[in-house]
């Protein structure tokens, strides 16, 4: 009795998202406009790993948009979504840089001392595109499991969310931001103490004992 309603819902979903992942029944110019409005704030909130990151877009250029992910002024990641016309619709291709250790960056099998985003990255970008094409907010619950394969990321996020500790991209190995700041302060003060001690010159024989004497 309810089959027609179910079929209608399925057809509506296919009309919005296309017949296969990454293909949308939306003309290329319209798809590009929607991609420019992608919910990067939602992406960042759902996928950042405890270090403060910012996303900035460049483009569109040649029907592609590239997002740079930076932390403390340094680029830690970038990815691109490239659109091409496919019939009356649009295909979106995701491009992630190669990792020096092989494969893509953040492909779910990498270890970073200060990860910027949860792994694997590619499904998370796919949801960013899907949400943009459907004109809705980013929804992390739509990502397939596992949503996070990075233990370090989990630890950093837990610290950020609890407020107990936080991390930065420039932290010293094995330390959080607070510990790193204290260590840097100590390192900066150490040369100053050495310079102050050296300013008195070399010790003079008998000088220590002569301070208590009034004269020869």
Describe the structure.
- The protein is an alpha+beta fold.
- The protein has a single domain (19-138, 146-178), classed as 2-Layer Sandwich (Alpha-D-Glucose-1,6-Bisphosphate, Chain A, domain 4), CATH 3.30.530.
- It contains seven helices and five strands; from the N terminus they run αβααββββαααα.
- The chain has helices spanning 3-17, 28-36, 40-47, 121-133, 151-162, 177-198, 207-210; strands at 23-24, 54-61, 64-71, 74-86, 89-95.
- The chain is elongated.
- The N and C termini lie far apart (118 Å).
- The model is unreliable at 1-18 and 196-216 (pLDDT under 50).
Characterize this entry briefly:
With 216 residues, the protein is α+β, with helices and mostly antiparallel strands.
The radius of gyration is: 28 Å
**Weakly predicted, low-confidence segments:** 1-18, 196-216
Strand content: 15-25%
Q: Structural class, please?
A: alpha+beta
Number of strands: 5
Annotated CATH topology = Alpha-D-Glucose-1,6-Bisphosphate, Chain A, domain 4
Q: Can you summarize the main beta sheet? A: 5 strands, antiparallel
Q: How helix-rich are the residues, as a percent range?
A: 25-40%
**What is the succession of H and E elements?**
HEHHEEEEHHHH
Number of domains: 1
User: Mean pLDDT, as a whole number?
Assistant: 80
CATH class: Alpha Beta
Number of H- or I-type helical stretches: 7
Which key terms come to mind for this protein?
single chain; 216 residues; alpha+beta; Alpha-D-Glucose-1,6-Bisphosphate, Chain A, domain 4; 5-stranded antiparallel sheet; 7 helices; elongated; disordered N terminus
């Amino acid at each position: 009795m309810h089959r027609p309603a179910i079929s209608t819902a399925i057809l509506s979903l296919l009309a919005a998202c296309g017949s296969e992942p990454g293909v949308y029944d939306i003309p290329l110019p319209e798809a590009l406009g929607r991609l420019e409005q992608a919910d990067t704030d939602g992406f960042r909130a759902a996928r950042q790993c405890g270090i403060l990151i910012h996303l900035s877009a460049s483009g569109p250029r040649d029907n592609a948009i590239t997002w740079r992910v930076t932390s403390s002024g340094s680029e830690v990641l970038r990815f691109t979504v490239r659109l091409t016309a496919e019939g009356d619709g649009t295909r979106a291709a995701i491009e992630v840089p190669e990792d020096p250790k092989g494969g893509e960056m953040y492909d779910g099998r990498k270890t970073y001392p200060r990860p910027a985003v949860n792994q694997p990255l590619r499904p998370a970008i796919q949801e960013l595109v899907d949400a943009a094409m459907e004109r809705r907010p980013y929804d992390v619950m739509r990502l397939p499991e596992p949503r996070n394969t990075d233990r370090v990321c989990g630890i950093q996020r837990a610290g950020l969310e609890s407020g107990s500790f936080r991390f930065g991209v420039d932290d010293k190995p094995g330390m959080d931001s607070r510990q790193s700041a204290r260590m840097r302060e100590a390192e900066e003060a150490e040369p100053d103490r050495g310079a102050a001690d050296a300013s008195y010159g070399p010790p003079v024989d008998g000088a220590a004992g002569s301070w208590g004497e009034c004269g020869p």
